[in-house]
Amino acid sequence: xxxxxxxxxxxxxxxxxxxxxxxxxxxxxxxxxxxxxxxxxxxxxxxxxxxxxxxxxxxxxxxxxxx
Length: 67
Known about the structure:
By secondary structure, the protein is mainly alpha-helical. The protein has helices spanning 12-38, 42-63.
């Protein structure tokens, strides 16, 4: 992410918020995976899997701010 601040440029509140966001995305990923694994409707299962992938992508993007 060009121009994105690194961890040394984040203040404590921003860092705490970032960690919360990452944690929330991680929880969403786990729940979506579980829902998809139990789903019998293929269309809904695909939607849940796409949502899982989206949450994983967002989590990875947020984690770049920690490096």
